[in-house]
Amino acid sequence: MQKYRVLSFVIIHLLIFLHIAGFGQELIGSLDFQELFHSFLRIGTINAGVIMVFIAFFTTLIFGRFFCGWACHFGAIQELSWVILQKLNITPRTVNSRLVVLFPLFILLHFYIIPNLDYALNHNWKISIITNTPDIWAFLPGFTIGLLTFFVDGFLIVYFLGRKGFCRFLCPWGAFLKLPSALAVYKIRNVGNCSQCGTCTKNCPIGIDVSYEINNFNKVVNTNCTNCMLCTDGCPTSAIKYAFTNPLKEDYQLSDFFIGDKTYNSSVIKQSFINFRVNDIWLGLLSFIIGFAIDGLFGMGHFLSFGIALIISFNLLNVHVNKQVRRIVVSITFILICWAVSVKYSIKEGVNAYQKKNYHSTIKYLQYSTSVYPNNIGKYFIYLADAYFEIGDVENAKKYTEIAFKINPQHQSVKQLQIKISNK
Predict the structure, then answer these.
(1) Quick one: which of 56, 248, 266, 379 could link to 67 by a disulfide (CB 3.0–4.6 Å)?
(2) Mean pLDDT of 152-171
């Protein structure tokens, strides 16, 4: 089955490259999971991305999370990272934490469902079908941030948190597919002759204790299962297979999905995992603080920001990390958080002050943020220039208008400000 899965990834990536190169863009816009929230949930638009999510959701109800295991490019990157680490004789231990449920769900609700649902409830929501919008780059970061996201969430998070660390700890789309995955009629099932060798658990690319689940529930109940078939392919006694069962005959108990303390305890697989559940509260709290502090700075998206936050937090709490190294990480992290919070606070207060026409406060806050934040953003210099102009300081108004012009020479606001100042 792995040959077919590799072929699936190759075909998917070939189609991605063809789409980026321009093939089909006049008919198919951004094929992104977040389109369901930013387009359909927010304003009622059904586009190519929304259709893709509908297909993924309803096929998951039948076949399980095949989309994640056979088509997701980010999942493929993480599996490739794991293979590279193995070639380098590096075998990271996979972290066992409750946050694999809580963190992705939080990101899904906080960044995608709640704000877009709130917008929909307060605006005119109307269904429309436009398959070629938005542009394929609409929600994608620039090259540098994109490359950094793949490196942090595709490689470093695997190195520090274990197999498919991004899928387990961060991916909101995986959280979205958990419900249909739980109800799927096709699952990995126990057909007998299990020797409890632990091979299926060791082979699982997403860190599920397959051996425990099939021997206690006769199937894999973990909704992170991506049906990659590595467990069935590798089973030495052919004790498990991907099979259908009539959903009316399924035996489900809610408690079956809360088994974290009971898993990863078998002696044959225990050394492959780190039980971090005792540190979950601190890991979650630190990750939230660091993630929110840096989110959005330098154009960093939620995935990159919280990926960095999780890696830093894990190393701060991991007792196996050298004490001197941890002290250095703590010091750097503290400075980073203080700087990031001060920049984001100053930008927020400066923009609010400008909107309220409190120009002295605008200058106070934006003067600070633009001086310590090396990422030049044109609109903040426009606000500064206009604020100086409004209090009668034409020289500084010209100075910051010039800076804004160098950043965005074609921006209409810059041209309007230049005309405003020249008419003084």
Answers:
(1) 56
(2) 94
Main-chain dihedrals φ then ψ at residue 72, nearest 5 degrees: -75, 120
Domain presence at residue 76: yes
Which of 222, 249, 275 is where one domain is finished?
Answer: 275
Instruction: Kindly state the average pLDDT of the residues 385-390.
Output: 94
CATH at 248: 3.30.70
């894990």: which residue's tokens?
314
Tokens of 245: 């069962």
Query: Which tens digits make up the pLDDT trace of 50-72?
Result: 999 999 999 999 999 999 999 99
Task: Specify the DSSP class assigned to residue 189.
Answer: E
Residue written as token pair 């309220």: 356
Which has the higher per-residue pLDDT, 24 or 258?
A: 24
Helix extents (H) in 122-241? 143-151, 157-161, 165-169, 172-176, 178-183, 199-203, 210-217, 230-234
CA distance 94 to 165: 8
| DSSP one-letter string for 291-347 | HHHHTTGGG--HHHHHHHHHHHHHHHH-TTS-HHHHHHHHHHHHHHHHHHHHHHHHH
Gap between the Cα atoms of 382 and 362, Å rounded:
11
Instruction: Count up the domains in the chain and report the number.
Output: 3
> Is residue 5 over pLDDT 90?
yes
Q: Print the domain residue range for 416.
A: 341-422
